[in-house]
Design goal:
With about 240 residues, the chain is an alpha/beta fold. It has a single domain (about 1-235), classed as Rossmann fold (3-Layer(aba) Sandwich). Helices cover about 35% and strands about 25% of the residues. Helix 3 packs across helix 4 (about 120-130). The protein is globular.
Length: about 240
Protein backbone atom coordinates (compact mmCIF):
# COMPACT_ATOMS: atom_id res chain seq x y z
CA UNK A 1 0.00 0.00 0.00
CA UNK A 2 1.31 3.43 -0.98
CA UNK A 3 1.19 6.02 1.77
CA UNK A 4 1.63 9.75 1.14
CA UNK A 5 1.87 12.39 3.81
CA UNK A 6 2.84 16.01 4.27
CA UNK A 7 6.42 16.54 5.41
CA UNK A 8 7.36 19.83 7.08
CA UNK A 9 10.98 20.85 7.50
CA UNK A 10 12.86 24.00 8.41
CA UNK A 11 15.74 25.73 6.70
CA UNK A 12 17.04 28.59 8.80
CA UNK A 13 13.85 30.19 10.14
CA UNK A 14 11.56 29.24 7.25
CA UNK A 15 9.15 26.29 7.19
CA UNK A 16 8.85 24.25 3.99
CA UNK A 17 6.06 21.87 3.04
CA UNK A 18 6.97 18.83 0.99
CA UNK A 19 5.35 15.43 0.62
CA UNK A 20 6.73 11.95 1.22
CA UNK A 21 5.43 8.79 -0.40
CA UNK A 22 6.42 5.18 0.29
CA UNK A 23 5.22 1.61 -0.03
CA UNK A 24 4.35 0.21 3.40
CA UNK A 25 5.04 -3.31 2.13
CA UNK A 26 8.74 -2.42 1.75
CA UNK A 27 10.53 -2.94 5.05
CA UNK A 28 13.40 -0.90 6.41
CA UNK A 29 15.40 1.85 4.76
CA UNK A 30 15.16 2.39 1.04
CA UNK A 31 16.69 4.64 -1.66
CA UNK A 32 15.38 8.19 -1.79
CA UNK A 33 14.41 10.06 -4.95
CA UNK A 34 13.78 13.77 -4.47
CA UNK A 35 11.53 15.58 -6.96
CA UNK A 36 12.48 19.22 -7.52
CA UNK A 37 9.48 21.38 -8.46
CA UNK A 38 8.71 23.18 -11.69
CA UNK A 39 8.67 26.97 -11.61
CA UNK A 40 5.17 26.89 -10.11
CA UNK A 41 6.47 25.30 -6.92
CA UNK A 42 5.67 21.95 -5.34
CA UNK A 43 2.28 20.72 -6.58
CA UNK A 44 0.09 17.71 -7.33
CA UNK A 45 2.33 16.98 -10.33
CA UNK A 46 5.35 16.35 -8.08
CA UNK A 47 3.26 14.47 -5.49
CA UNK A 48 2.05 12.11 -8.22
CA UNK A 49 5.65 11.51 -9.29
CA UNK A 50 6.57 10.78 -5.65
CA UNK A 51 3.80 8.17 -5.52
CA UNK A 52 4.97 6.58 -8.76
CA UNK A 53 8.49 6.39 -7.37
CA UNK A 54 7.14 4.83 -4.17
CA UNK A 55 5.57 2.09 -6.30
CA UNK A 56 9.12 1.28 -7.47
CA UNK A 57 10.23 0.77 -3.88
CA UNK A 58 11.76 4.20 -3.29
CA UNK A 59 11.02 6.94 -0.79
CA UNK A 60 9.58 9.62 -3.08
CA UNK A 61 10.09 13.15 -1.79
CA UNK A 62 8.25 16.04 -3.48
CA UNK A 63 10.51 18.91 -2.46
CA UNK A 64 9.41 22.44 -1.56
CA UNK A 65 12.05 25.06 -2.38
CA UNK A 66 9.90 28.20 -2.03
CA UNK A 67 8.46 27.89 1.49
CA UNK A 68 5.16 26.78 3.00
CA UNK A 69 2.20 28.44 1.31
CA UNK A 70 4.31 29.97 -1.47
CA UNK A 71 2.80 28.47 -4.61
CA UNK A 72 2.01 30.01 -7.97
CA UNK A 73 -1.49 30.27 -9.40
CA UNK A 74 -0.37 32.23 -12.48
CA UNK A 75 2.71 32.15 -14.73
CA UNK A 76 3.58 35.66 -13.56
CA UNK A 77 3.70 34.64 -9.90
CA UNK A 78 5.58 31.47 -10.83
CA UNK A 79 8.23 33.51 -12.64
CA UNK A 80 8.60 35.83 -9.66
CA UNK A 81 9.07 32.91 -7.25
CA UNK A 82 11.46 31.10 -9.57
CA UNK A 83 13.61 34.18 -10.13
CA UNK A 84 14.26 34.53 -6.41
CA UNK A 85 16.38 31.41 -6.83
CA UNK A 86 17.24 31.62 -10.52
CA UNK A 87 18.86 35.01 -9.95
CA UNK A 88 20.70 33.76 -6.87
CA UNK A 89 22.18 30.40 -7.77
CA UNK A 90 24.31 30.15 -4.59
CA UNK A 91 21.06 30.42 -2.59
CA UNK A 92 19.44 27.76 -4.78
CA UNK A 93 22.35 25.38 -4.21
CA UNK A 94 22.50 26.04 -0.47
CA UNK A 95 18.77 25.49 -0.07
CA UNK A 96 18.77 22.23 -2.02
CA UNK A 97 21.80 20.99 -0.07
CA UNK A 98 19.88 21.68 3.15
CA UNK A 99 16.96 19.63 1.81
CA UNK A 100 19.38 16.81 1.00
CA UNK A 101 20.78 16.78 4.54
CA UNK A 102 17.24 16.88 5.94
CA UNK A 103 16.02 13.81 4.08
CA UNK A 104 19.15 11.77 4.80
CA UNK A 105 18.13 11.61 8.46
CA UNK A 106 14.60 10.30 7.80
CA UNK A 107 13.89 6.90 9.35
CA UNK A 108 12.94 5.35 5.98
CA UNK A 109 15.85 6.84 4.02
CA UNK A 110 19.01 4.99 3.04
CA UNK A 111 21.48 7.91 3.22
CA UNK A 112 23.90 6.10 0.91
CA UNK A 113 21.34 5.87 -1.90
CA UNK A 114 19.97 9.29 -2.83
CA UNK A 115 18.84 10.53 -6.21
CA UNK A 116 16.97 13.55 -7.54
CA UNK A 117 14.80 14.31 -10.54
CA UNK A 118 13.44 17.60 -11.78
CA UNK A 119 11.19 18.94 -14.51
CA UNK A 120 11.72 22.31 -16.27
CA UNK A 121 13.15 24.64 -13.58
CA UNK A 122 13.44 21.54 -11.40
CA UNK A 123 15.82 20.13 -14.00
CA UNK A 124 18.07 23.13 -13.47
CA UNK A 125 17.81 22.60 -9.71
CA UNK A 126 18.99 18.98 -9.83
CA UNK A 127 21.83 19.84 -12.22
CA UNK A 128 22.95 22.57 -9.83
CA UNK A 129 22.79 20.06 -6.97
CA UNK A 130 25.11 17.76 -8.91
CA UNK A 131 27.37 20.70 -9.70
CA UNK A 132 28.02 21.25 -5.99
CA UNK A 133 30.04 18.03 -5.95
CA UNK A 134 27.94 16.65 -3.12
CA UNK A 135 27.69 12.92 -2.44
CA UNK A 136 24.50 12.06 -4.30
CA UNK A 137 24.22 8.97 -6.47
CA UNK A 138 22.57 10.53 -9.47
CA UNK A 139 20.25 13.17 -10.91
CA UNK A 140 17.78 13.18 -13.79
CA UNK A 141 16.74 16.33 -15.66
CA UNK A 142 13.52 16.26 -17.67
CA UNK A 143 13.34 19.14 -20.19
CA UNK A 144 15.57 21.20 -17.90
CA UNK A 145 17.57 24.39 -18.36
CA UNK A 146 21.30 23.90 -18.77
CA UNK A 147 23.16 27.17 -18.21
CA UNK A 148 25.95 26.76 -15.68
CA UNK A 149 26.05 29.23 -12.78
CA UNK A 150 28.98 31.57 -12.26
CA UNK A 151 31.52 31.04 -9.48
CA UNK A 152 31.06 27.30 -8.99
CA UNK A 153 32.79 25.99 -5.90
CA UNK A 154 33.28 22.44 -7.21
CA UNK A 155 35.41 21.44 -10.17
CA UNK A 156 34.12 17.85 -10.25
CA UNK A 157 30.74 16.13 -10.46
CA UNK A 158 30.84 12.70 -8.79
CA UNK A 159 27.12 12.06 -9.37
CA UNK A 160 25.80 10.20 -12.40
CA UNK A 161 23.76 12.52 -14.63
CA UNK A 162 20.91 11.68 -17.00
CA UNK A 163 19.52 14.47 -19.17
CA UNK A 164 16.22 13.80 -20.97
CA UNK A 165 15.87 16.48 -23.61
CA UNK A 166 13.37 17.58 -26.23
CA UNK A 167 15.41 18.44 -29.31
CA UNK A 168 13.05 21.27 -30.26
CA UNK A 169 12.97 22.78 -26.75
CA UNK A 170 12.98 26.59 -27.19
CA UNK A 171 14.48 27.02 -23.70
CA UNK A 172 17.40 24.66 -24.30
CA UNK A 173 18.83 25.08 -27.79
CA UNK A 174 21.28 22.52 -29.23
CA UNK A 175 24.29 24.73 -28.46
CA UNK A 176 23.39 24.86 -24.76
CA UNK A 177 23.01 21.07 -24.76
CA UNK A 178 26.50 20.69 -26.23
CA UNK A 179 27.86 23.15 -23.66
CA UNK A 180 26.33 21.05 -20.89
CA UNK A 181 27.89 17.89 -22.33
CA UNK A 182 31.28 19.61 -22.43
CA UNK A 183 30.88 20.78 -18.84
CA UNK A 184 29.93 17.30 -17.61
CA UNK A 185 32.88 15.76 -19.46
CA UNK A 186 35.31 18.36 -18.12
CA UNK A 187 34.14 17.75 -14.55
CA UNK A 188 34.38 13.98 -14.78
CA UNK A 189 30.68 13.15 -14.48
CA UNK A 190 29.31 9.81 -15.65
CA UNK A 191 26.71 11.29 -17.95
CA UNK A 192 24.09 10.52 -20.56
CA UNK A 193 22.02 12.88 -22.71
CA UNK A 194 19.03 11.41 -24.52
CA UNK A 195 17.33 13.71 -27.02
CA UNK A 196 13.83 13.09 -28.35
CA UNK A 197 12.92 14.23 -31.85
CA UNK A 198 9.75 16.23 -32.58
CA UNK A 199 9.68 17.11 -28.87
CA UNK A 200 9.71 20.52 -27.22
CA UNK A 201 9.68 21.82 -23.68
CA UNK A 202 7.30 20.46 -21.02
CA UNK A 203 6.89 17.18 -22.89
CA UNK A 204 5.94 15.32 -19.67
CA UNK A 205 3.06 17.67 -18.82
CA UNK A 206 -0.35 16.59 -20.20
CA UNK A 207 -1.61 20.16 -19.72
CA UNK A 208 1.07 21.68 -21.96
CA UNK A 209 -0.58 22.46 -25.31
CA UNK A 210 1.38 25.37 -26.82
CA UNK A 211 2.74 23.62 -29.89
CA UNK A 212 3.44 26.91 -31.67
CA UNK A 213 5.52 28.09 -28.72
CA UNK A 214 7.38 24.79 -28.49
CA UNK A 215 5.87 23.78 -25.14
CA UNK A 216 3.63 20.76 -25.52
CA UNK A 217 2.96 17.29 -24.19
CA UNK A 218 4.53 14.47 -26.16
CA UNK A 219 3.17 11.16 -24.83
CA UNK A 220 5.73 8.92 -26.50
CA UNK A 221 8.68 10.98 -25.27
CA UNK A 222 7.07 11.13 -21.84
CA UNK A 223 6.81 7.34 -21.64
CA UNK A 224 10.29 6.76 -23.03
CA UNK A 225 11.89 9.27 -20.66
CA UNK A 226 10.24 7.76 -17.57
CA UNK A 227 11.33 4.28 -18.66
CA UNK A 228 14.90 5.52 -19.08
CA UNK A 229 14.80 7.09 -15.62
CA UNK A 230 13.69 3.77 -14.12
CA UNK A 231 16.62 1.88 -15.62
CA UNK A 232 19.00 4.67 -14.56
CA UNK A 233 18.04 4.36 -10.90
CA UNK A 234 18.09 0.57 -11.04
CA UNK A 235 21.67 0.84 -12.26
CA UNK A 236 23.03 3.43 -9.81
CA UNK A 237 21.25 2.10 -6.70
Amino acid sequence: MIKTEKYLYKIDDTTYEGYLSWDEKVKGKRPVVMIAPTFRGQSEFEITKAEELAEMGYLGFAVDLYGQGRRASTPEVATMLMNELNNNRPLLRARFLSVLEEIKSHALADPEKIGAIGFCFGGKCVLDLARTGTSINGVVSFHGIYDAPDHLESTSIPASVLVLHGWDDPLAHPDSTVQLANELTRKGAEWQILAFGHTGHAFTNPNAKDEKGGMFYQPLSNARSWSKMKSFFEEIF
